[in-house]
Amino acid sequence: xxxxxxxxxEIRLPLVEPFRISSGTVIDRRILLLxxxxxxxxxAWSECxxxxxxxxxxxxxxTAWLAITAWLGPRLLAVDVARPDLVAALLSTGVVGHAMAKxxxxxxxxxxxxxxxxxxxATLLGGQRERVGTGVSLGIQKSPEVLAERVERARTEGxxxxxxxxxxxxxxxxxxxxxxxxxxxxxLTADANSAYTLDDADHLAxxxxxxxxxxxxxxxxxxxxxxxxxQRRMKTPLCLDESITSVERCEDMxxxxxxxxxxxxxGRVGGLxxxxxxxxxxxxxxxxxxxxxMLESGIGRAYNVAxxxxxxxxxxxxxxxxxxxxxxxxxxxxxxxxxxxxxxxPRSRPGIGVNVDEVYVExxxxxxxVLRENPRQDGRRR
Length: 382
Ligand code: OSB
Ligand code: MG
Fold this sequence. Notes:
The structure is a single chain. This protein has about 375 residues and is an alpha/beta fold. About 35% of the residues lie in helices and about 20% in strands. It has helices at about 60-75, 85-90, 100-115, 120-125, 145-155, 170-180, 200-205, 225-230, 245-255, 270-285, 300-305, 360-365; strands at about 5-20, 25-40, 45-50, 130-135, 135-140, 160-165, 190, 215, 240, 260-265, 290, 330, 340-345, 355, 365-370. A 7-stranded parallel sheet has the order 5-6-7-8-9-10-11. Strands 3-2-1-15 form a 4-stranded antiparallel sheet, sandwiched between helices. β5 (about 135-140), α5 and β6 (about 160-165) form a beta-alpha-beta unit. The longest helix is centred in the N-terminal third of the chain and has 19 residues, at about 100-115. It starts with a strand and ends in a 10-residue tail after the last strand. About 50% of the residues are buried.
């Protein structure tokens, strides 16, 4: 595989409703899309999951744009890539951080390889599952009553798990209302997006009463040790999201017992190779994983669905259907969920399994830049 062109596009896609987490709110999603072209003419679209503001991690759309155009894109254009699992190392040598920017290129390389090989991305990754279980992630609502209505609706729509965003001042009462709406047997989880400190341990331990499947990322990204101290004081399993930035951090979590469940987001860990490594060490340790979401368009979602087809993704992921986020998605067919709460893994066509609506993408585009290979020193163009 030899890339001849990397096209960057920023689109704006309004969410059907604002999404509020403890650290901020997303209303209009600014999304950075890439289109990779290789010398055979094969193409693949990918998505960078960074937000407009650094509310989840240090990266943003603008830092990723810079990283890809200034440092990462030129590197990928300068080499022949034998296999997509080599791209992560190529992008990481000498460039620290910028995981989401790297992931957009790395993941696109996997899809391009799948296109060239004529197989689906899920198949190339080694995923066996035919469908993946779907959960909904509900942003912080105005009141426990409003949340209860949303939970009730999610339950009737068939979601296999309901996740509720929490923050100090919007936690226990909200979770009690959610539990009442879902019933005692329903899978309920909460995500704090790092809104607490260990000083809140007594308060957080009271969350045990609502019987969550897990509590996601209560403490800071770097708080692996503190999460292990909190875990010892709670019955509820902890799940780590922001903290797991690499397979090494995941190994640290396992040896410190900082949590019992892992959320894998390929953007957060630099791509699909690292995601698979994390999946594998968790599987070996008997720790279940699920695929997180970043309010992706249908392009990013395709990668999440393919990843979640791997064997140890035994818990429902944040992989909701297109209409939970967008009035109109940028792919066809749009992503749908069946009445049992599953999304089907597309296998019948090569690559990411959906078509990109390029006319609509063009309409939504607010910024565009194209990177091209530099002719080789000897003047030959292959
Ligand atoms: O922690 O998973 C998170 C959205 C914004 C920032 C952080 C998170 C989320 C979600 C979105 O939970 C889940 C989805 O894409 O459906
Ligand atoms: Mg999370």
